[in-house]
Design goal:
Layout (H helix, E strand, L loop, with lengths): L3 E7 L3 H9 L1 H7 L3 E3 L7 E5 L5 E10 L3 E8 L8 E9 L2 E9 L6 H23 L12
Antiparallel strand pairs: 1-7, 2-3, 3-4, 4-5, 5-6, 6-7
Helix pairs in contact: 1-2
Length: 143
Amino acid sequence: MPDILQDFPINVPTARVFDAVSTPSGLDAWWTVRSSGQPRLGETYGLWFGPEYDWRAGVTRCRDGEEFELELTEADRDWRGTRVGFRLEPRPGGTQVRFHHVGWPEASEHFRISCHCWALYLRLLRRHVELGEVVPYERRLDV
């Protein structure tokens, strides 16, 4: 199975990065239009990207300030069962982020598009926590 993996630094403390990747207000600032849920193991998240993309995911890993992962349960066919996660490691001056989107059934066209989109979204995550930037959802893949 193909996986999407990204490692990159963010120059803010791990607690700020954890909030941005695990709370609805954090996710809405750089990834979703709107989301719901609590960063607790077993919790269900609503991830809304538009009327035809009203997805659900379960929290499969959650260690405060260290690790957060969602498994997609209601989503596009090839996203169902995949896991999106973040492992955060403190480093001098900030946080090392180890991102993964694993469990893809095949290296499909959607997988290839998602590889590109994740790079763009992760850049928005970094700019959001470092600079406070929030790009309107409809412009996020154009920035």
